[in-house]
């Protein structure tokens, strides 16, 4: 945000974005409970008039001072939520969320303090912050399981560790992105790229233990499928680095890229079903859980892309139950269902022992 925007100086602004920023700066300085006194308003108005008569150097100095004052107020958490239509362009994402947005806050401290305030991102932050802590604890417990519960402890802990790493990276990039999204255009751009890359990491990490156990006795196709999902995942990460990818117009494309990456699992699934038969696939192959996971992820992606339910109730889902929040919850649920399926596959491998039958994949 430019200093003039932070100052709340509505004069000398030519473009809309700066004007919006000015309104925000002015509005954001008001705290929720304590309205600014009229005398203070008067003082600011006369300060603005005085500002006009200054030399450029003095104006710059004055601007810096007021920028500092503005940032200081942000640190103290003195801001209030604002409507969508006064957001600067880079913060405008979903116009069905009419009110309750954080203003631009060029201070990481203010952004992190906003985790404990109620606004459009509160649900997005907490769903993945709690999800991240949950998978972190689960991962630690799993990694410390006694080695005698595995047939190949080292390998198995590495492949299940890949799933936990993917899940933890995805969820932590996500809650961090939603926390600092309102910091500034540059910061939001960098973190949105991390957020999208995190989804690719989760998908790639989920494939690793699933392919390992499903093709335990056929290492060659297992290896080929792993290479393919890694190449596709890296391609998704590469496309996420383009600036256009994060824009609201590409919402559907984004959902499509990640659903497509997840659906690349259809090929190994069919391979498994053909080689092992439908019955084995749905019992020991855990296809039911995988199917449920796919339903959860795809439902989440559809809600996200179509912005359901807020498109039917604009302004009614500003804080709770908007599409992005539901999508976050479905991602955590999908990852947990996948983990459950992988645990069942692991258990089967343990019961069956390390040996392989003549021509079985599993
Ligand atoms: Zn998100």
Automatic annotation (TrEMBL):
Q: What family name appears in the similarity comment?
A: Belongs to the ADIPOR family.
Cellular component terms (Gene Ontology): plasma membrane
The record's listing under InterPro entries reads:
AdipoR/HlyIII-related
Any one GO biological process: adiponectin-activated signaling pathway
Membrane topology (UniProt): Multi-pass membrane protein
Note whether Zinc occurs among the keywords: yes
Can you tell me which residues bind Zn(2+)?
178, 324, 328
- Looking at the UniProt entry, the stretches that span the membrane are 125-145, 157-176, 196-215, 222-241, 253-275, 287-306, 326-345
This one is known as: Adiponectin receptor protein 2
Report keywords, A-Z: Membrane, Metal-binding, Receptor, Transmembrane, Transmembrane helix, Zinc
GO MF annotations in UniProt: metal ion binding; signaling receptor activity
Q: Can you say where in the cell this protein is located?
A: Membrane
| Keyword Membrane among record annotations | yes
PANTHER family (UniProt xref): ADIPONECTIN RECEPTOR PROTEIN 2, ADIPOR/PROGESTIN RECEPTOR-RELATED
Query: Where do Acidic residues bias regions lie?
Result: 37-46
- Gene that codes for this? adipor2
Q: Where is this region: Disordered?
A: 1-51
Q: Which organism is it from?
A: Chanos chanos
């Amino acid at each position: 945000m430019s200093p003039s925007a932070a100052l709340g100086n509505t004069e000398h602004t030519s473009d809309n974005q700066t004007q919006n920023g000015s309104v925000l700066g002015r509005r954001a300085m008001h705290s929720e409970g304590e309205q600014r006194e009229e005398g203070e308003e008067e003082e600011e108005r006369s300060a603005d008039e005085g500002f006009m008569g200054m030399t450029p150097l003095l104006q710059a100095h004055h601007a810096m001072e007021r920028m500092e004052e503005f940032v200081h107020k942000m640190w103290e958490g003195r801001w209030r939520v604002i409507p969508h239509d006064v957001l600067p362009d880079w913060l405008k994402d979903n116009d069905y969320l009419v009110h309750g947005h954080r203003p631009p806050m060029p201070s990481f401290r203010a952004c992190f303090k906003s985790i404990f305030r109620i606004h459009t991102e509160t649900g997005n932050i907490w769903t993945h912050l709690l999800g991240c802590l949950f998978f972190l604890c689960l991962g630690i417990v799993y990694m410390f399981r006694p080695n005698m519960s595995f047939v190949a402890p080292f390998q198995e802990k590495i492949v299940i560790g890949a799933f936990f790493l993917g899940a933890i990276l995805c969820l932590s990039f996500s809650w961090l992105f939603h926390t600092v999204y309102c910091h500034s255009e540059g910061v939001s751009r960098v973190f949105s790229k991390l957020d999208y890359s995190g989804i690719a990491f989760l998908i790639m990490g989920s494939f690793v233990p699933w392919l390992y156990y499903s093709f335990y006795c056929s290492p060659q196709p297992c290896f080929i499928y792993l290479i393919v999902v890694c190449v596709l995942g890296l391609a998704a990460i590469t496309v996420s680095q383009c600036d256009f990818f994060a824009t609201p117009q590409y919402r559907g494309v984004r959902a499509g890229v990640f659903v497509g990456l997840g659906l690349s699992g259809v090929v190994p699934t069919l391979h498994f079903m053909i080689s092992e038969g439908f019955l084995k696939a749905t019992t020991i192959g855990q296809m039911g859980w995988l199917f449920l996971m796919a339903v959860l992820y795809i439902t989440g992606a559809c809600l996200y892309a179509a912005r359901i339910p807020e498109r039917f109730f604009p302004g009614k889902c500003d804080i709770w139950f908007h599409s992005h929040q539901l999508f976050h919850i479905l991602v955590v649920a999908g990852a947990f269902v996948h983990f459950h399926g992988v645990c069942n596959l692991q258990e089967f491998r343990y019961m069956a022992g390390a040996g392989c039958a003549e021509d079985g994949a599993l």
